Amino acid sequence: MVSRVIPVEPFDLVIFGGTGDLARRKILPGLYRRFQAGQMTDDSRIIGAARGELSDEAFRNLVAEAIAEFLPKTQQDPAAIADFLKRLQYVAVDAQGENGWPQLKALVRDDVVQAFYFSVAPALFGDLASRLTAHGIAGPQARVVVEKPFGRDLATAKALNATLAQHFAESQIYRIDHYLGKETVQNLMAVRFANILFEPLWKSEYVDHVQITVAETVSVEGRGAYYDTSGAMRDMVQNHLMQLLCLIAMEPPYHFDPNAVRDEKLKVIRALDPVRPEDIVRGQYVGLKGQASYLEDAENKNSKTESYIALKLHISNWRWKGTPFYLRTGKRLRARASEIAITFREPPHSIFDDAEGWRENVLVIRLQPDEGMNLKVMIKEPGPGGMRLTQVPLDMSFADALGEAAQDVPDAYERLIMDVIRGNQTLFMRGDEVEAAWAWADPIIEGWERRGERPQPYDPGSSGPEDALMLMHRDGRRWREIR
């Protein structure tokens, strides 16, 4: 199978924070990959913007170093890199002052697609938006990309939305969540809505429960000061896991259209029941074998911020009433793994005597690593001696099924930036969607803060706190092994 690459229109992309960590690690190497794949036209340009004074040549050297550091050698073509660097320029801009804006205006063309990536702290979003319009740089069709965290509660999210709305229409604002750019996440919609096999079974009548897991082995070292003001709930659940939940639970949209898809996601968030305190488990990793604890990494010995959280959710609509959704995410866990597991109910009656050997059918969507899908079904165990049942996987690894095309699958940031240039908002969050997610999350956070609860300790390399296991055990269910 050969992956098709469709070039986008000519564009000028301005990256505010163009010398920052995200730009170096993801945005600029990703843009080089899209250039190498033939998706960028020769007259497209990338303009780095930051406070520091740099020449174009110095910025190009920085980008060349980032490509060398963050992309595998097999993807580094010296001739392609040299050609890509020619399309880069740099301007020093003061987001909160007037320095550099006339120079930026002179660089940005008004006869191509204009895109402005705010790879900066949210506190600067308003300053950038106001100066882009005040200096006449952003045209009426310009697009702005904003990174999370998009607020830390409902009030700040509303304030950010209002600030951006003073200068840009909602159709111009692209709130980026890189999880939605992952190939397997998008395949959730294809699996559900392009296959009659699954859609009739996608409801509480046939689904026993759903598990969503995002496990990380890394600590918060190096970003502890930021993380300690957010925690797993704000950093992961309110955005990444919420988006995965919406794609699993949403109704079929009338068309694969940005607003139609986001309308259905919004309905899911609004249908979420309030979460009871007993259905929440918060954890904090401890130090072990010379490794620092969360308190040490956060440099706050009295911190009550969670590095792990597990929740049991219910959706009050006709499709999902009675089916629990179990979500968990955490740092310093046993393995790096992100997956969604849909566990189907047992048949109402078994004709086989081997009841103890019975296992449910499970559809597992692996987001990382080894992206793919796995459907576990029951078959007869080979050999004589009667009808003994065993569970086997019907496995589809993207790498195996798609061959070379799977190796060329764009990184999430690559795909999403190209969608910005195309003007496709399907995989970006809408303002009311962000606000609805915070409206659901705020009471949960306020509840444990009011009760003064401390997260439970858990060992690095484990699956999280013991009470997280009990969250499912009391329902007669078990978490899937993190591996």
The main sheet orders its strands as 14-13-12-11-7-10-9-8-15
Q: Compute the number of structural domains.
A: 2
Tally the helices: what do you get?
Answer: 16
CATH topology of the largest domain: Dihydrodipicolinate Reductase, domain 2
CATH architecture designation of the largest domain: 2-Layer Sandwich
Helix content: 25-40%
| Amino-to-carboxy terminus distance | 30 Å
Low-pLDDT segments, ≥5 res: none
Q: What portion of residues belong to β-strands?
A: 15-25%
Report mean pLDDT, rounded to a whole number. 91
List how many beta strands DSSP finds. 15
CATH superfamily of the largest domain: Dihydrodipicolinate Reductase, domain 2
Explained architecture:
There is one protein chain. With 483 residues, the chain is of the alpha/beta class. The protein folds into 2 domains: 11-147, 3-Layer(aba) Sandwich (Rossmann fold), CATH 3.40.50; 180-410 and 430-473, Dihydrodipicolinate Reductase, domain 2. The protein has 16 helices and 15 strands. It has helices at 21-36, 56-70, 78-85, 101-107, 125-134, 154-165, 183-193, 224-227, 231-249, 258-270, 294-297, 398-402, 404-407, 412-422, 431-451, 466-473; strands spanning 11-16, 45-50, 88-92, 113-118, 143-146, 173-175, 207-215, 280-285, 308-313, 325-330, 337-344, 362-368, 372-380, 389-397, 456-458. The strands form 2 sheets. Strands 14-13-12-11-7-10-9-8-15 form a 9-stranded mixed sheet, with helices on both faces. Strands 3-2-1-4-5-6 form a 6-stranded parallel sheet, sandwiched between helices. The mean pLDDT is 91. Substrate binds at residues 178, 182, 216, 235, 331. InterPro entries: G6P_DH, G6P_DH_AS, G6P_DH_C, G6P_DH_NAD-bd, NAD(P)-bd_dom_sf. Residues 189-480 form the Glucose-6-phosphate dehydrogenase C-terminal domain. NADP(+) binds at residues 17-24, 51, 148.
